[in-house]
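ERR on first pass: missing label on line 2. Operator R.T. fixed the label and resubmitted. Corrected input:
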Amino acid sequence: MVRTTLKSSVGSQVVRLALVVVVGILVSAAVTRAQEPTRAPVAHPTVAYKPPLTNDWANWKRDCHNMFTKPDKDDIISCATDTFRNRPFHFVAQTVVPGSGVGGGGFYGHDFNNDDQTRLELTGVLTIRQFSFAQVKFTKQRPHFGPGSFEGDAAIQLFARNKQLTALPFYGLGPNTNVNNSVQFSERDTRIGITVANPFLSWLGVSGTFESLWPSAGGVTGTKVISIQNVYTEQTAPGLATQPNFLHYQIFPYIHHLFADRFQLDYRFRYGYFQDTSTGHYSFRRLDLDFGHSFFPEREDNHRRLDSVFTTRFKISLSDKSAAHAIPFYLQETIGGSDIDNEATLRAFKDYRFRGPNAFLVQAEYDRRIKGPVGFLLFYDAGKVALTHSDINFSNMHQGFGGGLAFFMAGKVVFRAYVGLGGGEGAHPYFGVANFI
Amino acid sequence: MPPAGLDNLKHIVVLMMENRSFDHMLGFAQSDTWPIDGLKGTETNVDSAGGAAQVSSDARYAGDFTPDPGHAVLDTLTQLYVDANTPVTQDPSMGGFVQSYEGKTGKPQDAHRIMKCFSPGRLPTLVSLAQQFAVCDRWFSSVPGPTFPNRAYAHGATSVGRVDMGVDWLNMSKTLYELLAENNLDSRIYYHDSTMAMTFKGLMNQGRYFDQIDDFYSDCSKNRLPVYSFVEPRYANSEDDSTNTFFSASDQHPDHNVEEGELLIHRVFNAVWNNPAVRNSTLLVVVYDEHGGLYDHMPPPKTVNPDNKNWKGSADSTDPPFDFTRLGVRVPAVLISPYIKAGTIDHTPYDHASIAATVCKLFLKNVANASLTARDRQANTFEANITLDQPRAVAPSVTPLPLQAPINDHLRQLVRAASFLAKQNLPGDDLSRVNPDEIKTEGDASKYMNQVHEKLRDIANQQSAGAAAGAAGGRN
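pass 2 clean. output:
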């Protein structure tokens, strides 16, 4: 073993270095558990060598060619990995919104050559139900600004996205709608905007978004469905007659912290203003208060068990408008199944089952690994939508419960399959892959 | 009798970063007062057209390495031998880095970027930790290949004969975590977004081996670290749409922002250092899994096959057969403990199996034949760097990023020295007119010193080129 230390004088450095080298050689020779010593590089070969192309495109062609010519497990995994992870282009498989069906498309990403993390990303998806999604994002990230040393970046993101939602169910507005009276509507959600985010403290991040919306909502065609205009009017579905452009301003503080290794809180507060840029008739404000808590009841080796977690969520969404104004139905909150952002809400009910300007949701869930990667989950949901703020209370809430299988890796749930029951509207299955990477 | 620092050692924490070679990160920090085996500045590789590419100290935090340099076995053996089919029994030339990168860029000139290395001022955290504790300048990756086989060696002193980047590592053999658990010692993998160990058959169903990164910081603050901790960086840039939170990968894998990794290293160091009870009982190892295709001048030595499992090659793979008897390219490795003398430079050859070897030697000393494979049985151990009987009383000055910290006296002197050099050698340049006392932050100081350094290097290169041309003219 040879070790030298920082030296102050050149003379003593040479002497000590020589001494250490000699001793080191002797010691190294005596040590039985020693790797081969290093040697100086040999001379470079003089013949220039043309290496084979090994870029992502070349690898993809080779791996997928192998899969089709003589497939085995490794070939299939390699081809799939290349197909869905390569840069700058890869294929994607995803839905657009709940109920849109599975879809496929492509992703292109370009990293710019500078000192920041700056990238351009384009995504396009088309589903089997002809829902589509196209998005362009330009993101510039830097380590956060401000004191402290913690995760999360300061970021500026410019975005443009368009969702074509060809047929979404609408059951009417308010808490007392009938599941059998559903109609269908189509929606286009087009927006361009900018988001600025910065985590100011280890437990506090704040972001702001300014965007311009060009929404469109209307009927659907087809003999097997009832289109929205056949049943609803501007009075019963505000915004059906005309869809103005909006400017949307939003501020979003996010608080998160782990206490005593057992309690974790995730509080999300969102305050936004939708400004109708034509007549102002559809302008409104919205406040979302979303309180999430996780409790880890079990410990192992004096550490919390990640695969035994009890979570609760308490969310209130309140909208506010002037007396003569109206809130467009397509911008109102939904609960039931999963919402437009794919967040689980009232899981014993269909997707988008209840829609209203105000919403209230309480959820509790327990996830526990049992054997191997397999575990279970149990949940209880209660919630309601309301036409007025005063109707946001615990009375007459829709309720449901359910359970199913959860699959864990490294202590975290990566896949869930469950059934929601007890809502009086049948059983509702769900399968979902957790976004764990 | 061992030093008191060894007696007090109760925890080893390994933070394993991604894909940067020793010379790329630390090579240009070599100096008369810090004589690591780094770069002279004259090292070259040639491209396929015969053009010479010389090492340079102008690497940027991001943007130099798109497309990602090759680091599969084919690529790495090309980098070592130029011809990847050369038997690994032969000594490497380290002459094929540029030509290997041509396989990605398609253009010889573009591939010259692979010789870019960092100026030390750009990596204040890594460099200051290396200088104020122990740097190992002969720590090699375990396999001349990519991430997963090398990380497998860090976890289990073998890659079970694999050299691939397949996502499924179910067939991994017994790991250090299982060996410790058999002897009633606890261990943890703390991760941000993923860890390959989650697919190891012996670990994947055991929540007890995994925790999230927040738990690491909490365990440090509460002096509750297990005997052995392995910290994974964040591997992917990501956005959480539900919280509008943007995360950058902190693994330093090209072309991810190296600053983010500097922040992570600083954060992990602080977590250990700020609790005196943890600081005085912990050896923190910051090491990189493999070189990522980036240049290093030191040939990796021979080694032993860990378990008689070889990569036999396959018609489906471009990787040639490999018997695991040659280590991979050298990587940065820093050992941190208050019982380590500042400025320690350890020239001992190590590879990732040295982690298991050291842990077994220190914590399973009463267990007969405690080891995982033949590789860790013969690997050198690094605990001998802990030489002090008393923890160092003075807290080290580890420079953090972001570089908004006010400039300290030492740095002020360096800036003044750079200003003096600029005035002497760059009389007409704006740099010579900068008042060094107006530079207020470490970031600005680093930037200024880099600019002076680069200008002086350009002048030196021009002078040497002129001298060479003159000599050639004289011969004609």
